[in-house]
Amino acid sequence: MNTPFDPETPRRPGVISRLRSSFLTGLVVVAPVGLTIWLIWTVVGWFDGFVWNVVPRGWQPDSLVNYFLGHEKFIGVGPSREPNSNWVTVNVRGVGLIVFLIFTIIMGWMAKGIIGRSFIRFAESLVERTPVVRSIYSGIKQISETVFAQTERSFETACLIEYPRKGIWAIGFISTPAKGEITQRAGNTGELLSVFLPTTPNPTSGFLLFVPAEDVIELDMSVEDSAKLVISAGLVYPNGKDPSVPPES
Fold first, then answer.
1. Among candidates 199, 151, 195, which has minimal Cα distance to 172?
2. Residue 216 has what pLDDT?
């Protein structure tokens, strides 16, 4: 007979608890894979839809396949035409993305030549004369050069800065040293660094801060690991075993 002083035997989890635990474990496994596949599938479909709306109908996959097979899309002449039941419909997802990549590579190769550069300068001169278009084109071009161009304008170093006040630290990304009027008007005797301070959980938005170089602490972790730390709200560290130990190189 048990007395009030006897230790209680731990109760085994019920069926509902075990099912819930298994469901949550499976969700952790399935969700990243499913969302990744869905995102890739959606992006590829978006590229396909964009490309095939630009490519002439006669050059699209179903038209080419039926041309080699000798199939006509319609049977008959005039108003009595009917759809051909032998018409083969081709809808291979990803072909449009391949066409886009090939087209982009060819355009990039041509742009490196003398003729390509001359044509681009001529086209840009026409755009600069158009009031509304030049503003849109200039903004998109600057964003594209910043994101895609392989220049010094890329985040290469993660850092710590005290923000929004002393004693509170935030992760930032060093872009470039401040230049021009910024350094002249700031009144600092030392070097200023342009630091992008991302927000959580969306690191694509944030603040641009100009911080004295002596107040910036560069981190050993990569930009990718720092971005994971920001996106996960501090749950994913570069070294999962001990966040205080830097990852092994």
1. 195
2. 94
pLDDT of 238 over the 90 cut: no
Domains detected in the chain: 157-231 (2.30.30)
Per-residue CA distances from 87 to 70, 74, 184 (Å) = 10, 9, 70
Residue 177's φ and ψ, nearest 5 degrees, are: -65, 145
Q: What is the dihedral of CA 123, 120, 152, 133, to 10 degrees?
A: 10
Distances, alpha carbon 44 to alpha carbons 35, 38, 95, 99, in Å = 14, 10, 9, 12
pLDDT at 5: 52
3-state secondary structure of 249: coil
Structure-token pair, residue 66: 């039926």
Contact call for residues 160 and 170 (beta carbons, < 8 A): yes
* pLDDT exceeds 50 at position 218: yes
pLDDT: which is higher, 41 or 8: 41
71: number of CA atoms within 13 Å, CB side? 14
**pLDDT (tens digit, 9 = 90+) per residue, 97-131?**
888 888 888 888 887 777 777 888 888 888 788 88
- pLDDT at position 52 is 77
User: At a CB cut-off of 8 Å and minimum separation 6, what does 137 contact?
Assistant: 124, 127
Strands (E), the chain: 74-75, 82-83, 157-162, 169-177, 192-198, 206-212, 217-218
Q: In what order do the strands lie in the sheet with 217-218?
A: 206-212, 192-198, 169-177, 157-162, 217-218
Query: Over the chain, what is the mean pLDDT?
Result: 78
Residue 172 in contact with residue 240, Cβ under 8 Å? no
Question: d(Cα 195, Cα 226) in Å, to the nearest integer?
Answer: 14
